Automatic annotation (TrEMBL):
Keyword Protease: no
Keywords noted in UniProt: Toxin-antitoxin system
Family to which this protein belongs: Belongs to the UPF0165 family.
Function according to Swiss-Prot or TrEMBL: Antitoxin component of a type II toxin-antitoxin (TA) system.
One Pfam family here: AF2212-like
Top-rank taxon: Archaea
Name of protein: Antitoxin
Amino acid sequence: MGVIEAVYENGVLKPLKKLTLPEKKRVKIIILDEFIRDLNDVFGLFEEDIDLEKLRKEWDRDVSNRH
């Protein structure tokens, strides 16, 4: 499916666009803001600004190549 943008309100993640998922489908969610912060805290990797769009494209490409 790729990257889905959502808003967190009142304890619920609400996608900004309609999803084409079957009911009760289980998914895993990666919160990029916290993921990047955690990587930086653990490894000190990112001393410059991160291009999130480039990161998303690389993530989608890497995931789709694992089939």
